Sequence to fold (663 residues):
Amino acid sequence: MANELEELIGFLSSPSPQITKAAVDIVRGFTGSEDGLKSLAHYANIVLPSLSRLLAGPKEVSEPAAEALVNLSQDTDLARKMVEMGMVKIAMEILYKPESGISKLLVMMLVNLTQLDAGIASLLQTEDEKMNGLYVMKLVRSFCRSSSETSDDPFEHVASILVNISKQEAARKLLLDPKRGLLKQIIRQFDSSSPLRKKGVSGTIRNCCFEAESQLQNLLLISEFLWPALLLPVAGKKIYNEKDTSKMPLELGSALSIEREPVTDPEIQVQVLEAIYLITLQDAGRRAFWSVNGPRILQVGYEDEQDPKVMEAYERVGSLLVDNSGTEESSAEKSI
Amino acid sequence: MGKKHYSDAIDCYTRAINQKVLSDSEQSILFSNRAHVNLLLGNYRRALMDAEEAIKLCPTNVKALYRAAKASLSLNLLVEVKSFCEKGLEHDPNNKELKKLAEEIDLRRLEHEQREAQVSRAVAGAKDLASAIEDRGLKIGKAVFQELTGLRKPTLDNNNILHWPVLLLYAEVMSSDFIEDFCETDMFSAHLDMISFSLSNMFSDTCPPLPWDKENNYTRESIELYYEAGSGVCLSKSKLLRYLLEGTAASHVESIDVDEKDATEGLNHGISAGEGSKWVKVGEKRTLHDILKEPNFIIPGIPVFYVVSKRSSFYKEFKAGKWVPPP
Fold:
């Protein structure tokens, strides 16, 4: 004898559109509460496939279905089941169907799914040699072509997906691959006014810097974009004088010669400082950092800093540079 | 004089051998002795055959084993030398000559292996360099001014960053200067500053100018750098590898493994030198890598930049495209 919940779940697959519409709205409501989630979780094997089928339907059912799935995917076990049943592929297919209208929700669901290693692997398409990295490339392209200017910015959350996946080496390698140029595109989003996008960029760069030991060249060769993204947040708010900016490359020097909005998010600041630390652990990284007058920028930025965690991060880089000052500092001093 | 007697000796031994009336051990001695004479005559192959025959007839014939080893040594059959020596030493462990030979072999093998290792290291190094160049999308063309550049080549450091030797040419007088190690992430300004510094303020107003710069036009502020755009043909991958191997342990290597798809000839990029080549100014605040990766820059072996002074009368002629580097 089916209980009410089972009946409701059954209605998700009803041939009548009015019934499915009513059912999915109710299910979506359930996913909003802790208890509701727990109850539905028992029937995961039916609920999840039913909801995913509805994603392909008209907006009146696909939207609540997507909302329900976003909520469900916050639970680790449910997320795992979703990845196992190929939810990443389904999401990507619907995401790129024109007029799908639920892009933002699908991206949010992917954020949750990529909290799991299996989700990351699924998104990277590591199994499939030919398609490897295709999903990621599509997401990056959408991320970079859209902006926070539009009212809803559907691809805003790709920022968080990138941070999630870059926890894995395979993703970092993909992002750093100079032939695909993904990191270069992503870094440009740093100028965005959306805090989520900014955080996503700094988090992703920081994660990618864990490859500095083996792939330093892929980081340094986009230094034109990399250094401004890493140094502007920790350059303080003062306008730099000519003596300092003359030693910097143009894009950095000109940005620091004018009035600017300082970055106030300590999380971003700590992340970029960690990224700088990872780069300057390497000989060539330190050399490049000195050559753009990086240490001077950190010096000035540190003067105005109040947040203890950020200060600690500055100090960590500082002592690394001092310990290794040997040749670099003397060659920098020579050119004064 | 002695040699004539040797061939007589060979004849005698041969006749004795052909009589086939002696015991195996006695035959063995005959073969062994004929081997000895062949060695003296320099007939190493025949000596080896005789010695081997002697060994077949009497495996404990240490003299034969020694002579087989010596013959093999002259034929550069290092493995055989070792094995004959070892067999001989089994029967006569204190044999000084065999021991000496064995040591010599070990030494030779070591030297050979070291040389092979050097060659394969050189080839691997050149391949890494070629990959690094390819990954960066750089175009390398035929080297020019080799009388000035010699065998200098780019290098890769531990962090996979490229360091280039860079040639600076003062176009007005075709005098030259070298930057031995220009790291691709360095800016031009840093190196230009260092040149001024190391030549005790060559570019300063109070110091003597370059010997040919009578009017002191070439100061730090007045100089500009240019590269020649679109001149020449890109090297194919195998030609590039060969160029990178010049002057290394592997410069003689005949064939290098190159991917099939890379084996095609390089593309012809635009105009060749002298036919209205374009001069492109180099922004001082840019890094070497930024400039090298410009699509119209075909690096002539190693990067060459032309130095001119805004203050010199030569400047107008240069900028108007009327000057061409001498061949």
The radius of gyration of chain A is 24 Å. The CA atoms of residues 120 and 168 of chain A lie 8 Å apart. Chain A has a mean pLDDT of 90.
